[in-house]
TrEMBL record:
<dbReference type="GO" id="GO:0005829">
    <property type="term" value="C:cytosol"/>
</dbReference>
<dbReference type="Pfam" id="PF01012">
    <property type="entry name" value="ETF"/>
</dbReference>
<comment type="similarity">
    <text>Belongs to the ETF beta-subunit/FixA family.</text>
</comment>
<keyword id="KW-0813">Transport</keyword>
<dbReference type="InterPro" id="IPR014729">
    <property type="entry name" value="Rossmann-like_a/b/a_fold"/>
</dbReference>
<dbReference type="GO" id="GO:0009055">
    <property type="term" value="F:electron transfer activity"/>
</dbReference>
<keyword id="KW-0249">Electron transport</keyword>
<dbReference type="InterPro" id="IPR012255">
    <property type="entry name" value="ETF_b"/>
</dbReference>
<dbReference type="InterPro" id="IPR014730">
    <property type="entry name" value="ETF_a/b_N"/>
</dbReference>
<comment type="function">
    <text>The electron transfer flavoprotein serves as a specific electron acceptor for other dehydrogenases. It transfers the electrons to the main respiratory chain via ETF-ubiquinone oxidoreductase (ETF dehydrogenase).</text>
</comment>
<feature type="domain" description="Electron transfer flavoprotein alpha/beta-subunit N-terminal">
    <location>
        <begin position="23"/>
        <end position="215"/>
    </location>
</feature>
<protein>
    <recommendedName>
        <fullName>Electron transfer flavoprotein subunit beta</fullName>
    </recommendedName>
</protein>
<comment type="subunit">
    <text>Heterodimer of an alpha and a beta subunit.</text>
</comment>
<dbReference type="InterPro" id="IPR033948">
    <property type="entry name" value="ETF_beta_N"/>
</dbReference>
Amino acid sequence: MNIVVCVKYVPDAQSDRTFNESDNTTDRVGVDGLLSELDEYAVEEALKLVEAGEGEVTVVTIGPDEAADALKKALQMGADKAVHVKDDAIHGSDAIATSLVLAEAVKKAAGGTPELVLTGMASTDGTMSVVPAMLAERLGLPQVTFASELTVDGQQVTIRRDGDAASETIVATLPALVSVTDQINEPRYPSFKGIMAAKKKPVEEWSLADLGVDASQVGLDAAWTKVESFTKRPPREQGQIVTDEGDGGTKLAEFLTAQKFV
């Protein structure tokens, strides 16, 4: 089975994430970044499926030069090859434009329609969870999303989706697109052998022209949504210290009441 996994390079949640002051877009260059944690589960699930049978795993990402680090991590985990869509015109693209570029990249990477497309449930920077559905629509594939368990049997894929009140079993015919949750597996750490092997694996770089996508369809000017303004979070203030002189409980209750917590 040939599987295409869409991954994203995102700012590290532990770093000081911010926006570009020039156009209010997310700063992806001036901060530390990494492969989106939720995408690691999609890569791991693809590797498990191929290891249980046969085929190959191709990872696809869109982003600046630094986005190559996301592909490197996926290749070190065990993916066979990677595609990096890199074009200055993509900067500022919203989910709609992103799904357009991804769709063309997936089709080109698979040489047509892939047997299976895997994604994370969301990106850790946007957390919108809409790109998988948009991508499935553009590819003309059935979408089965938020999979906590996934099996492929013949020409169909079955997932279990866990909700707050119940679990659903959903079946779709292949080819299909599946997004997975962080409950589906435990992503592997790249081994030394995997890290060394990744250096020899093919990584292709494509522009919008290579995908046949008009630059006017993507980028900040074509975005349906934009960030109008942003304000940095103010520094945390020192908390109030209550000295317990036998009435600490009363003072705490008064504080909570004044703040309308109780």
